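Issue 218. Parser rejects a valid record. Input:
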Amino acid sequence: MDHCPTTTTSATHAPQLDDSSLDLLFRQARSFNRWQATPVSDEQLQQLYALLKMGPTSMNCSPARFTFVRSEAGKAQLASAVFPNNADKVRAAPVVAIIAQDQAFHTHMGELFPHMDVAPLFAGNQDLAHSTASRNAVLQGAYLMLAARGMGLDCGPMSGFDNNAVDQHFFADTELRSNFLCCLGYGERNALQPRLPRLSFEQACSLA
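Output the parser choked on:
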């Protein structure tokens, strides 16, 4: 019997996560800067990708590419490309995911969107291809974070780095371009600072 922590409100609606699951993904989830030494396995990273890849992207374009940096040599290269206050975080995290975007993602559209030939739309419009790749890679990076939290992993997203340096270290002579980084592992909860405030509904939202 399936014991998924969900509450079904109607046979015609998707099931709803219970409060403990929503706490895990959002209300109690935090961004971590300090990490336990517990490793993250290959199997966990494979499960992580199996989950995040199911998140929607425009025309199923799936432009994100994920480099999971775990080796000391890889971390040293990555630490040299981040802002000084982020270097120790990179070295300490069990895994640092480089969320990149494939600028040539359209070459896979025949496989990913087989019912319509949309590859020429992107091949002939560099601005459209870049904006599509960037926007959807960010979406897929967010799916990575939610999937990781759902698996019991902690996240530390990071944008303080030199994109060109990261691309030279990890993606030279490819069509991949770094978008953002995310540390993954098991965070040190006793090192957390108080949660920063968020905008209210009235400040951030409007009804039209």
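Fixed in the parser; the record now loads. The CA atoms of residues 107 and 194 lie 45 Å apart.
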